[in-house]
Each structure stands twice: as C-alpha cells, then as structure tokens.
Structure prediction request, 336 residues.
Amino acid sequence: MTDRELDAAGIGDPALRAAYRHCRALNARHGKTYFLATRLLPVERRPAVHALYGFARWADDIVDCLGPGADTGRRAAALTGLRRSLEEGLRDGPSHEPVVLALADTAHRYGIEPALFHDFMAAMSADLTVTDYADYAALRGYMHGSAAVIGLQMLPVLGTVVPREEAAPYAAELGVAFQLSNFLRDVGEDLDRGRVYLPADLLAGHGVDRELLRWSRDTGRHEPRITAALREFEALTRGVYRQALPGLAMLAPVSRPCIRTAFLLYRGILDAVARDGYSVLHRRAVVPRRRRAAVAADGLARAVAARLRAGRSPAPCPPHAPAPGTPCPPAAKEVM
Prediction:
C-alpha cells in the first residue's frame, strides 16, 4: 500500500496502515486480475478494496492452503478462530489479525452490513464438508455467500448513481459471474481438492460423473462428453455476465473503468478455456498477456477521462446508502 493511497483514504493510525498494507500484498500476490483492475480506482478507494479482498483471501487459504496434513478439524478450528476475530473486530474495531483490523475499519467507514461477512464465512465452512452440488439452484445457494456477497460488499466502496438497492442485484450477479469463470477454469484443481462445483445434473445430462472427471484428470485424455458439459457450463456463465452487465452503468463514473476491466478480464477466462479446447482438467487456461495489456490500457484511458469529467458531472450517490426516497442522478448509459 503506498503512502499516497493511505493518506488519500484518511488512514493515519500506524497499526491500521500496516494492516491495509498486508491486505494489499495479499491482493497483489494472489489476485492478479483483481489487483490490476483495482489500480484503476481513485486512490482513496483502493485500500478498502484491498481490505475486502485480503480478508476473503485469508479465509479461502484456510480452506484450501493451510498446509500439508491439515485435516478438516484443523481447518474448521482455524475458521472458527477467524470468525470470532471477525465478530469482535466488527463489534469493537481492534483486532490482532491484520486482515480483520483492515476489514473492520473498511466496514465501518462504508457502512457495509456485517451479515455479508457472516454469510461469506458460512460458505467457507461449507467448503470443508460439501464436495458437490446436485443442481444449479444448490450451487447458487452456496455462491450467495462465496461470491454474491463480495459484490454487495464492494458496492458501497464503488458508489452508485442510482439508489444502492437498485444496483445491488447486478453487483451480486457480477460476483457470481466471476466465480463461475473461476469454477470453469479450476475444474481440475478443485477435483484434486475433492470438490466438483459443476452441477451434478448438468454433468449427468452429458453422461459425466466424478469418476469420469477423475479418469480424464489422471490420464490426460480428452472425453467428448466432458467437453460438451464444460461447453454448457460456459454458456450458462455467459448468461450470468449478460444479466450483470446493466449494473456497470449504475456505478459511480470513476469506478466504472475498474469494474469494466474486471468484467472483460474475467469473462475473457471463458474465451481462454474455449480456445484451449476445454482442457481445464489438464491445465489452467490463461488470458493472453497481450489481451490483458490491451484491456488494462483501455481501462486506464477510461479512468483518466472519468476523473477529468468528475468535476463537471452530477455527484453520484455517496458511499453510504441514501435515505429512503432520496433520488440519485440517473445512470448514464455505457457501451462495453
């Protein structure tokens, strides 16, 4: 975290500044696409986004990366400890966990509902015991806590030009779209962790089950039935992106380049998977560096233009939700 970002955000306490720097490091190391998009936000909003990401990353690492030999009981105990720290931090503020200290400060500054963090922790706990999902409805139930709430947490930081409750469904849907892209990209890695996020009924519709996925992963061989199932999941995911798209124009103009860039890069994962022949059980599909650079450059140009216009445009709704019945300026249309 640069001093410029922390100063712009009004974060002066040394311990708090260190906590935000820790979250930024987690974002830069683990969430390269997310981190790249975050660089397009105004400097004063970046620390909050890093805090939200840092906490989510920390919890996710407990579930997936605690270390060799860490059984379910140890992971559950670590999550329980983090949940207690979260509850104390949201209630009292101070915390010995840097990610919780920064998160609690962000939640207080932007009026983010505590329930969103509790729902997220419930989804992380589910990953300890739930290894597959019968259908898309069941998967969506899980993704409320693992993905939709991330979009809802972000919304107060990004700001809106419509009442926040109007933009909320689109923000939640975008969080789901991002995670569905990751599910498709990470089918093989998730299988190695004992989890299958692709709905069982979607797989079964193409004659695919866990055993066939395991066979393909272990042998490196392709199977047309698996490819057909992955293609259907890709189409489903693209539909979620279409549903989320109208929400971009509801965001504060200075935040749109960031989220538009993330939208294009995460949706680009689907293109990479298709271009690689749906080989996600054998290797990770990657958005080409040239494409990432082009999207980032366009996002930077849009961000600069948005900041130049900011002084001449109607003010967006403030980070905190407006009082009921308080109108906001109409959202300007934006073309992808």
User: Anything to note?
Assistant: The chain has a mean pLDDT of 89. Residues 20 and 102 are 6 Å apart (CA to CA).
